[in-house]
């Protein structure tokens, strides 16, 4: 019988998700719309349009969160501190005005992305993939995005509530807990494979949304 030290320790799901989506993540964050927005080459309307797309996506994700809240495994990934829909709605009210619901225009790629979430996230591996992709990104690169939007477009607290987590004073300890919860989901090998593949799909869907936003918003002259 092999000694315990000879038995390979399974790679944590959080690591598999990070490594398995590295290429897709890089492609999404280097999409021209993102680069131009963060370089200050667009205008506030481009950011407002992005916020409108985010509302569609996070509504779908947070509907899935509610469906998993009471589940023995999935409930471990549901944190009220991460809820984004009310914050996005506040941003849209600031960016568009009181009648924002009649002014926003959800792109086809965004509708497809949200439909994908709704069709697969009743299952834990897929839900874990989409929640990981969205929320850990918000707590990491999202904070850099917030600072760039403040710098280039004169935004402050109003309009940037999406990037503010008042109930998470320190992001790193929270992200550590979230990764621990991911790693403790007890997914079997087939479920892990599904989760990684779905996370890759999430990044591809996000990139498609950025592509359509880029077609709608051109750099200022």
TrEMBL record:
Pfam families assigned: Heme_oxygenase (PF01126)
GO molecular function, a single term: heme oxygenase (decyclizing) activity
Presence of keyword Cytoplasm: no
Chain segments annotated as transmembrane: none
Recorded coiled-coil stretches: 175-202
Keyword Metal-binding: yes
Keywords: Coiled coil, Heme, Iron, Metal-binding
GO biological process, one term: heme catabolic process
InterPro entries according to UniProt: Haem_Oase, Haem_Oase-like, Haem_Oase-like_multi-hlx
UniProt-listed CDD domains: HemeO
Tree of life domain: Bacteria
Entry-linked SUPFAM superfamilies: Heme oxygenase-like (SSF48613)
Residues that coordinate or bind heme b: 18, 25, 132, 179
PANTHER family: HEME OXYGENASE
Name of this chain's protein: Biliverdin-producing heme oxygenase
Organism: Antribacter soli
Organism lineage: Bacteria, Bacillati, Actinomycetota, Actinomycetes, Micrococcales
